[in-house]
Amino acid sequence: MVRIKSNMVLKPTQRLADGSFVAKIYPSSYRRSQDRDGIVVRVIEYALDDPQRTGHEQPHRLMTNLLDAERYPALELVILYHERWEEELVFDEQKTHLDPRRAGKPAHFRSQTPVGVEQEVYALSLGHFTVRALMLESAQTVDLDVDRLSFTGCLRILQARLPERLSEK
């Protein structure tokens, strides 16, 4: 399943009960005009109904080879797509944001040995888990969905406040 641009030309060949449709994609416009070498796909169009999220009310499209709408309902696939996307955000948070000296740049491992690199991966994961656990605790104290909190915003607060908290002890 992949997200595709909302302006990608896809001619519905069959409308499905859940609002999605079946279409064909082609390797070139010439092959499309000849209806040759097309791959049958299912297209799910939706809009996010959440004013707090980027892309609210804008059209979004997913394309999949899961053609059976009864077995794979469109709404379920949209939810699963966004859940999977959260995993991608975890990798981005770990790679890009956890090293304050390299803000906005991918993390680099410094160790010269496989065991050392493994330790760095575990340390990065533990640091990420710690920030996310603090975010969850904070969100729960005010009955807020943790997805509403910004990882980079929380990280900046921790970076600013942690030195003063450590000096108090």
Mean pLDDT: 86
Shape: elongated
- SS content category: alpha+beta
CA radius of gyration:
22 Å
Task: Estimate percent helicity.
Answer: 40-55%
**What is the domain total for the residues?**
2
Distance between the termini: 51 Å
Account of the 3D structure:
The chain is of the alpha+beta class and 169 residues long. It has 2 domains: 2-72, no CATH class; 98-168. 45% of the residues lie in helices and 15% in strands. It has 4 helices and 5 strands, in the order E-E-E-H-E-E-H-H-H. It has helices spanning 29-34, 74-97, 114-141, 151-168, and strands at 2-4, 14-15, 21-25, 39-47, 59-64. A 5-stranded antiparallel sheet has the order 1-5-4-3-2, covered by helices on one side. The N and C termini lie far apart (51 Å).
Notable characteristics:
169 residues, alpha+beta, five-stranded antiparallel sheet, 4 helices, 15% strand, elongated
Secondary-structure blueprint of this entry?
Blueprint: E1 2-4, E2 14-15, E3 21-25, H1 29-34, E4 39-47, E5 59-64, H2 74-97, H3 114-141, H4 151-168
Antiparallel strand pairs: 1-5, 2-3, 3-4, 4-5
